[in-house]
From TrEMBL:
It comes from Thermococcus barossii. Residues 205-317 form the Peptidase M20 dimerisation domain. Pfam families: M20_dimer, Peptidase_M20. One of its GO terms (molecular function) is metal ion binding. Keywords: Aminotransferase, Cobalt, Hydrolase, Metal-binding, Transferase, Zinc. This is Diaminopimelate aminotransferase. Belongs to the peptidase M20A family. PANTHER family: ACETYLORNITHINE DEACETYLASE, ARGE_DAPE-RELATED DEACYLASE. Its cofactor is Zn(2+); Co(2+).
Amino acid sequence: MSNLERISKEIENLQDEMVETLVELIKIPAISPDYGYEGEYDKAQKLLEIIKDWPFDRVEVYNAPDERAKNGVRPSILAYYYGEKGEESPRLWILTHIDVVPPGDLSKWTVTEPFKPVVKDGKVYGRGSEDNGQSLVASLYAVKAMMNLGIRPKRTVILAFVSDEETGSKYGVEWLMKEHPELFRKDDLVLVPDGGNEDGTFIEVAEKSILWLRVKVRGRQVHASMPDKGLNAHRVALDFAYHLDRVLHEKYGERDELFDPPESTFEPTMVKNPADSPNIAPGEHEVVFDCRILPRYSIDDILKDAERLAEEIKEKYRKEFNGKVLPEIEFEVLQRMDAPEPTDPNSEIVLLLKEAIRRLRGKEAKVGGIGGGTFAAYFRKLGIPAVVWATLDETAHQPNEYAWIKNMVNDAKVMAALALL
């Protein structure tokens, strides 16, 4: 029996422990202070408790300072299991994130409450089960199976459990790369198991640029029965948002079949205004656009188009109140990630992953691009080839989020194969 076969069998034997670990991690709501929560500290401590007696060669904790978070830090954990040549072995990173998104509308959670996980029909339900708990646990037990059997892989495995993926990575991967560049090598191989498809045959090698743009409109609040006495910021914002949506889709509408979906997307998402009564014409209004932009287009060009349109809209609704000209339209960039060069489809990490999938599943994987942002983009910016892959139903961010137990087990086998091949 080959080492891969022995490890695959051991992973299967560890299935119940894997489920138990996933359940324990889901119970802890590791949600960003951006959403009014405490961050990832408690979940990181739980993870350290789980692995404290495992024979990792090195475990390091890196605390990004954030005064809003519990104990003022956003922790990331790196756990090293050396390859057959010790510290001289080539290295494979497997990066997962410990933060999750807020639960959303609790009334839509019909299987269980978000942080009270249940195991049902071969699935584990709960917030963060699929995003990113399934892959986090799979990476852990890919390594534990090797540990249990006393097998050293060809490549040193670095398991990275990182904070702040869901709100831009300022306190996660981005912080690590800025403050600790010595951690990363140009010849590293990187797997980010945070996207994929239902049968695990899609390997992401490219991502779109990301722009989260908040538009703030200020008018003059007034009683709704006397709209001429003020300036309804809601009406101005609706007009602006409609025309911005139209301009962006028309001007930046080309397709690239490498990506799914193949076109740039511009989605109005969050809306806010202070009116708390039907008879108030509000003086403020905010709308946020989530833009996922094909790499051929410039984010700067899109921002310039938004600014030009804002000037047109301001002139259209122009009023003066006590010497102050309204409306005002301001922009705030909440997140920006300019798309890096794609990972070469013929790079070592892509070819290894294809071979692992072929051996373990008898299937041929395909490569492509996505609109979602992942850790992989940060490595590509450093010139380090990175791929995104997992076997997922894509229930992330949805009510009744779940992870298939079989996917968790089988993905762990593929991760182990990457270290061995």
